[in-house]
Design goal:
Arc Repressor Mutant, subunit A; D-Maltodextrin-Binding Protein, domain 2; 3 domains; five-stranded mixed sheet; three-stranded antiparallel sheet; 10 helices
């Protein structure tokens, strides 16, 4: 039995709560993971996990063993990384999760610069609006918008998403431009954006001269993916409110027009998040620093106005 491989397999089962998910994240067969854990239990002479048809739970001895071995595995990763030489030359595979529109419009077009700086880093990029579990899905880091409510993750703020409220010229020709946010509940129509985290439609937010208001809006369409949401606005299906980086190209082309200019939408903070027990390798540190620099300098991400 390879003790290190067995320890990693056991650790992933604990972290994911499933032999199947652990096997997927390790790119191994489920039977191999099961056999490694069984051999580890036989070697130790104790039960580490309790298995039923519905779930896997950690025994008291298994929890104590995990706490001690996860620290040892992190130290081993430190050694494997090559210490100082790896710090000056980041390399290896890095799994990152970002929103689909942020990837398509901002980050992927800039990745050639990241590859030029770090040619030995292989990025495994997940780009979708599906909310993943960083630990269960074995992702190194993710970029998230909004307040960080999950205290089990480490979050570094790297910038802010500026929001705009827009409508298509065709919509404005049919309905006119709203003059006050309250009109979105009556005379006007909005496209709803459903949070993949909560399953709820996110309301429109505005502030002006110290006054703040939140509007749900009258809607006949809700969408749960940002590119599709913007496309609905361009098609004249209702007023939309989202991050400027997703709207600016349509504003420049004249297919979307900003409305309610004197009512400023509330922006959302941008964070890079990762698990607290995740080893901060040179490649992860390089990506975090590069992303922070991108948010400071990219024209679609730099805020154009104050709060």
């Amino acid at each position: 039995m390879d003790r290190i491989v067995a320890l990693r397999a056991f650790g992933r089962v604990v972290e994911t709560g499933s032999f199947t998910k652990a096997a997927d994240s390790l790119e191994m067969g489920k039977a191999s993971v099961t056999r490694l854990v069984q051999h580890l239990e036989a070697h130790l002479g104790m039960k580490l996990l309790t298995r039923t048809t519905r779930k896997v739970t950690v025994t008291r001895e298994g929890a104590a063993y995990y706490d001690r071995t996860v620290a040892l595995l992190r130290e081993l990763e430190d050694v494997d990384a090559g210490m100082a030489s790896e710090q000056s030359n980041p390399k290896g595979r890095l799994r990152v999760d970002i929103g689909a529109a942020l990837g398509q419009l901002v980050m992927i077009p800039q990745l050639a610069e990241f590859q030029r700086r770090y040619p030995q880093v292989h990025l495994d990029l997940g780009a979708s609006d599906r909310r993943i579990d960083i630990v269960v899905d074995n992702v190194d880091c993710a970029i998230r918008a909004g307040a960080m409510t999950d205290e089990s993750l480490v979050a570094r703020r790297i910038g802010e998403f500026e929001f705009l409220t827009c409508a298509a010229p065709d919509y404005l020709a049919r309905h006119g431009a709203p003059r006050h946010p309250d009109e979105l509940n009556g005379e006007h129509m909005v496209v709803g954006y459903t949070s993949t985290r909560t399953g709820r439609v996110i309301p429109f937010n505005f502030h002006r001269d110290g006054q703040r208001t939140e509007v749900e809006g009258r809607m006949l369409l809700t969408v749960n993916e940002l590119n599709a949401y913007v496309a609905a606005g361009v098609s004249g299906l209702g007023i939309v409110q989202t991050a400027r980086f997703a709207l600016q190209r349509h504003i420049d082309a004249g297919t979307l027009v900003p409305v309610l200019d004197d009512w400023v939408p509330a922006g959302l903070a941008a964070h890079i998040v990762y698990a607290p027990n995740r080893y901060i390798s040179a490649r992860l540190r390089a990506f975090i620093d590069w992303s922070a620099e991108l948010f400071r300098t990219h024209p679609l991400l730099m805020p154009r106005r104050g709060p």
